[in-house]
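Marked as duplicate of an earlier ticket. Keeping the data here for the record.
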Amino acid sequence: MEPIQASHPVSFKLILGSSSIARKNILAEMGYKFDVMTANIDEKGIRREKPEDLVLVLAEAKADAIMSRMNINDYKKEDSDPTLLITSDIVVVHQGIIREKPISKEEAREFLKGYSGGHVSTIGSVVVTNLKTGKRCSSVDIAEVYFHDIPDEIIQNLIDEGIVFNVAGGLLLEHPLTLPFVEAVVGTTDSVMGLPKALTGKLIHDALVS
């Protein structure tokens, strides 16, 4: 159900189409209760040249994959509250190159050393699909992160810990090892972490309006 503080036109249910702990935490911080489903798509099999196009098509593909496992007619009953499915994707762009999850220790090290003393952009998408009406709303949010010099031993510790392999570009903004070396964030922290709150709230509202 929607949080009391939100001014949405009708009551509804939410499904988060992501296993990301960060996204779960952000959506919970927004005051929502939700179920979780995962898409399990081959993200590497979907390519686009522009990062904005890539994250949108990936989030849409995740929604389509989840919906393909549902009995959608159950969600279209007239007497039922609408159910909204939220899917999203994010990439890191460094020096014009799209960076997704690193696939090796060498690649993770290359990514993180490249960020040291420099900056990256995060391009994230949010797609909200109303399973009752079929209406789908989507948009993209962009943020930038500037870093101080990151010592080699910190980079090695992050790689040894292994979490860098689960996030786009190996970028861990709020990790205790990384945070002291973040100089500035232009945009919002929740956007960098994969689910921009303001945009998500707007798309939820828009998806409910007929």
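See parent ticket for discussion. Helices lie at 21-29, 51-68, 105-115, 152-161, 189-192, 197-208.
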